[in-house]
């Protein structure tokens, strides 16, 4: 059930049937010359919807939070970003709102790499301190071998966009996107990424090769991600989420 | 230009053409048994799009923030809310992101009464302390005489929904919505609203009569709101937004 | 009972007799060339005292907080201001102190328009989260038809000052005050005040016509405000202030 | 010049004449059965006024902040307290307001022992980080040998009250106050006060002997405090308040 | 140069010679029945010292921060933890102190996995907002193939302890440590760790096999880590750390 | 028991035996040309260890926090400092971690004058709001008559260093240290220290005469401090630390 489209009485009728909610979170940030700024929100939302469909049970899907932790892309026009603190507060307060209505097992469905650290932190904090159990699922970490090909505006994101919002991929700029990008995220030495901004290592914002991101790959990615999310949801539904006892 | 759908290169091409951005903000909260929880986000976004269309010039329309200041509705299932502090931080950081790219005259386009105080505060704070000029426009305060008929899930919101998302209005619950609602927002004495929660004065969350909210009224509301927003945008574009000199 | 003048044993003796406290809040800010910077504190305190007198029961009157939310007047020499956050924290902590002693129905008695939004927010927050019920009463919103004549350092405030602190009104500057002022608060377009600072629309800080603010009007205003406050106090004393049940 | 009673034009006329402001801060807290809760505010204000009078030059005296850091007295009815953070923020924002108008050498005139630590911290922070130089003067630390007789509601405060607000001292409870009090503040071991609340060591809130606090002593205390404050003001006016150079 | 052991004049003499500082950060948390709570601080400090030795140039080594982000181990007696916010603030203020003295390229030398996310965030924030460039080096991510064998209190940490603080390894509990531990960190499903506390997946706090952590391995680890850190330090020293230009 | 060197099972075994913990806190700041920046941490740790030894009972000694409130020394190279807020948060979270394991009577063992105010505040706050009783012991306030000779890098600190870390005292700079120092801390007028930075009153950072700080004096100081701390610990162990009842 998409929360935004439901009435409060619909939600009330659902009470007792499920305690699972999805909270999709994206980002509004550069994705190269060929892919829209809203890529991470579009993909997160699509995966959440597909996961809810794939899951054998009812799930409340909250509205997608469109702005995330993206200061690293701020040199590129149009990028929006929250401080990590504000992002965490937004996720935490939204998730605890959901929990107050009985949906106290929350899976954050994430579409942006820059959100990962903050989400790991805030889901841990919530689980320990609030009346909610929360985990964060990032779709491109759950698509099997494809995971290793994740870049930025590269194969995976371009492919998934072709599946969920094909009109927003600029076909005529794919080659330019590929040629002006970088093969790798970051600038590494001794296990440390020396770059704090993507503009330090990619000229046009792209990492990877978007030309390989076909609609077929996109279809497959959505299926893989939805299946993973559904499987995770079952695990979350069945898990004992009480905190462990102190060791003596 | 809808920011989410543009690429960073599109935004770059726009540089110099405009310094105006809209930031739509809604809420996810009960709107009676007949109207969806996302009402305020849907209407804010529709008004922002229509205003951008009506304005004689270019405007960047940021993605809609779907969660607002709505603790007053928290007794109704499905309502989500941010603390006013987090809401202000979110608006401020998003608006200053826009300003960093040259869109430093920001009109927040608001669809929710509960956001009004926080938006007045944060747009003032931003204008004084950051490199941005910001004001908040609330559509139902700019639709002429209709303004006086604003309730909650009542005539105005139901009408506008019939225009922008008709499939989400539950026709079969309109009468129930009207009959179980309240004629007035709040519980007043000596100029003071004694109620801090809507559940103190409305049984089903409705204030006003949704049955009078026809698609025709909705059409008119959207036109009035868009025209007001376009007019405001012109005024914002032309205004001297430097801060006044100290009086001596 | 004025708290500042009472001993703790006096307060202890009052225990059980009343659970009502008033917390007067003002501002120290420009009020034109003829009226003192402390106007809002003087008037709030006077109204609180008069209301306590008019109310048929006992009330604890806390000391007046003299600095409020007034950054909008900061271009005028002598204006002091708190950030809205600090103002809210001050009000909240003072009110919860009162509640800890059994005075857990707190009426904030306000003399300054710039405080209104912050007070609405913080009284709501306190009522929901702390062991206290709080509302904010702003005297010039409860003086009947006079309310529409409220400006800034205009008829109403000048009149009330003539009643409560006549020696502080500069008679010889009343005409100058009137002539250099503005007829209206703000600079409006499409329901939006484009001005964030009073210096954007008033040369000398005045809004309205102070020359019509006679001592007779002041007398009447104090009576009206006190009667309103007393009536409100009765309503607060009798109200069921428990939070509503969740809707199912 | 008392800021609350001045108009902004009066303050403007003062520009250039002085850069000194006093900010009186008190507390609203138990002072035994014989002395009012507002003791620290009354005395701080009186000392500030007397110091301004004694100083050979002009001083702007801000309104008195009536609530301070007093959680240690919260077991006694009527005591109000701010968290140290809120207290510091209030002092800092008020003082920087003063500085924005040219009064950028601020002497906080303090009447409450519980404020001392927080004031030392915040005046240091302001001096380092804001465009203001600030120090905190606590009157009972600047009255010569009398200083050693400071208790709580004891000789010194009772005496000064008899001088500045005699009608608020309850003569008929002086003996009771003395007999039910404590000879010493705190409960000490190895240089550490083990008590965090005054109720841990005084039954009725008094420390010291109020019966020795005559009006004559009060007169002398006010003169001593005013002379000290005036002397300090001269030193502040003449001091090089720029921050030292880094050592190389 | 170990900062704690130097005098300010020693540091002054170093000015101009280097702009590199190390800031070791550890944690005080359970490391199984055989390894001390201070393991992460001891190892971080040892690696920092060894790296400074290996680096061909001068480095200032700040004192080791002994408490980190470790709430996930709080069910085990003796574990200390800071909130991630306080940990970030501590690191940021310490690093900007270093930068104020000219050591404005700071390498945080980290010994604890739970600190990694917070350090990545805060070094990014500092680099963008403060006058400092900072990165975080975590020793067990820079020891070649050994990295894959990192557990908790397992082979790597036990080995390095045997090298740097052998007297603190309890030989007689190594078998018990191994047998009561877990082979893997976390409880994974679809790329998500469902466990937020280590007590959810390890009985005695150990992950991995400490019995394989010999002193020889420890020696090798220290050399590998020191070499990596020295190499990183050279890269940091030579890097253009100015922020990239905005893309147009 | 030194917490850093213990395993969690050691700590578990101690459960029930003691509820006392020491938390040593120092500072990393200039101590003149002859004494190391880490002086306050070294001395605090030594006193904590000696106190634990002297106390007739078991005590858990937490790791030493090496950075404190020291902005007043920031003009001297190498000085590190936390904001008072971050310092308080660090102490509070560390102490409440200790309390969560049953060590809920915490004595902060302090070696730095600049920490004193912040520690008094935070131990009070913790005792009132958290499940812990805390006090702060500053060693040089508990060494009898020696206390009056405390300066900065002067007799007392130099002496104690000679006892606990003699290799870190630069003998060849003692005379220079003495001659370039100041006889007194601060710049006083009317009971107020007009200086906010030590560089306002001492050229080389020293206050007092380090040449009188012999190892014999150091020995005596350590014994006096340890005896005081042990005595305090007994008092803390036996004290009724419940908060007092409200006065009626």
Automatic annotation (TrEMBL), chains A, B, C, D, E, F:
Cofactor needs: Zn(2+)
Keyword tags: Hydrolase, Metal-binding, Zinc
Gene3D superfamilies with a match to the protein in the record: Creatininase (3.40.50.10310)
TM ranges: none
Top-level taxon in the UniProt lineage: Archaea
Alphabetized GO MF terms: hydrolase activity, acting on carbon-nitrogen (but not peptide) bonds, in linear amides; metal ion binding
Example of a GO biological process term: riboflavin biosynthetic process
Xref: Pfam families: Creatininase
Name recorded for this polypeptide: Creatininase
């Amino acid at each position: 059930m998409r929360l935004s489209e439901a009435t409060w009485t619909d939600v009330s009728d659902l009470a007792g049937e499920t305690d699972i909610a999805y909270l999709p979170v994206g980002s509004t940030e550069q994705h190269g010359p060929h892919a829209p700024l809203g890529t991470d929100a579009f993909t997160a939302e699509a995966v959440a919807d597909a996961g809810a469909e794939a899951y054998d049970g009812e799930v409340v899907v909250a509205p997608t939070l469109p702005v995330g932790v993206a200061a690293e892309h701020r040199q590129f026009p149009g990028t929006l970003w929250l401080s990590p603190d504000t992002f965490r507060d937004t996720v935490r307060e939204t998730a605890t709102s959901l929990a107050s209505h009985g949906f106290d097992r929350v899976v954050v469905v994430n579409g942006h790499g820059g959100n990962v650290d903050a989400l790991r932190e805030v889901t841990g904090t919530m689980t320990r301190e609030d009346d909610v159990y929360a985990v964060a699922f990032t779709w491109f970490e759950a698509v099997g071998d494809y995971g290793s090909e994740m870049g930025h505006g590269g194969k995976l994101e371009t492919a998934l966009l072709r599946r969920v919002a094909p009109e927003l991929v600029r076909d005529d700029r794919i080659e330019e996107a590929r040629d002006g990008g970088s093969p790798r995220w970051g600038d590494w030495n001794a296990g440390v990424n020396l770059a704090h901004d993507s503009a330090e290592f990619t000229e046009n914002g792209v990492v990877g090769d978007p030309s390989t991101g076909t609609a077929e790959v996109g279809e497959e990615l959505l299926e893989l991600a939805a299946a993973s999310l559904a499987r995770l949801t079952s695990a979350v539904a069945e898990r004992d989420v009480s905190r462990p006892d102190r060791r003596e």
